[in-house]
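To assess whether ligand presence alters the predicted conformation, the chain was also submitted together with S-adenosylmethionine. Input:
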Amino acid sequence: MALLMDTRFLLRKVKDLRSLTPKRNRVKEKWAATHPKYPPTSLALQHFDATYSVQLGKMWPSVRVALLSERKYGALLNNFSHDAVLADLQEKGCRDFINDADTEAQPCLEQVSEEESSDVPVKKPDSDGQQLSPPQLSPNIKCVVFPRGDITRFKPARPDTYRLLGYYLLDAASVLPCLALNVQEGHNVLDLCAAPGGKTLALLQTQAIRFLCVNDTSVSRTLRLRKVLQSYVPKEFLTDENIRITSFDGTRWGDIERNSFDRVLVDVPCTTDRHSLTEDDNNIFSKTRTGERRRLPQVQLALLLAGIEATCPGGEIMYSTCTLSQIQNLSVVEQAIHLAREKHGIHLEVVDLQPFTHMFRKTFHFAPDLHLGEMVIPHLAANFGPIYMCKLRRLT
Ligand code: SAM
């Protein structure tokens, strides 16, 4: 009885309070008729549940949880900045995962026979029969991360006295394709799909490039890329002798500039799995973008083929995405190798990146047993990726 009295009293109080609020200030929750029943993020999750549970099997539940949880960032250090930010970040508990890479030689793995039986030629790194020697890394690319399991956020970078920022925040795994591309002194490099520019900055950190072409078909995104470069690279360096920024359709690159570059990065548009699961804005799973999403593998293949044509014989191409999708990753690479040979008479070999990924196994989780390329898979204790990468070498 007492409880009923209390409830009545409270309800009356609420009513009294509402009558005190002027009518014009009351906010009525609106339910828009246009509000989609299934937002793009839900459609993405449905799609991934259907495809990745088959592709990844038992691994999918843990990858799914990681994808839906807060991601981890890394800070790519800017060698052009005059502020010594490394010591400051180390003091906060960060470490440079590249400098800390495990350079111990990797024991030869038994997996080789399976790869050799495939149609695609895989080049094993030189070995003495027992050990695979660790690959050389650019000493100038530095990227710091917080320890495993620590998801402390980085503060935004501050400009130095020359107005250049000390670091660029990005998924630390996205530095791996740039590192593995192994840019050498005096190389001509093409970054075919470059905006907003995280990987371009990583390539520039090598301080080895003779000439860099950065391209992105989207004019607005190229403008953003230009602004990023202006915030990180001194004006004196951004000259026509060093760098060319364009907004061409990359699929046509082979028509204009063939056999020209020592290194080509083809970081294609994809379903950007993490973004598609967390942001409804600009989401490739929105109903209006279904056609664009279905055409992705076709566009990716055309871009990779254009990148292969743009590379000089002996040169190397890195194909990368931020999706787990086999159709956008391995299948695209397989078709590109086949078509390059059949249509253009270009022979390629796949460079084995296992000794490379072995060096970073304490920082990232890599998918086991991929027969083509390597993939960082998200994990709650090291929530980076997904990043897929496959390196090709032009033989002819
Ligand atoms: N490499 C960039 C980075 O690290 O910041 C991210 C690139 S993002 C994954 C893919 C980019 O490809 C988008 O900026 C998109 O505008 C661009 N793109 C899409 N189609 C293209 C085409 N046909 N030619 C060149 N770029 C294209």
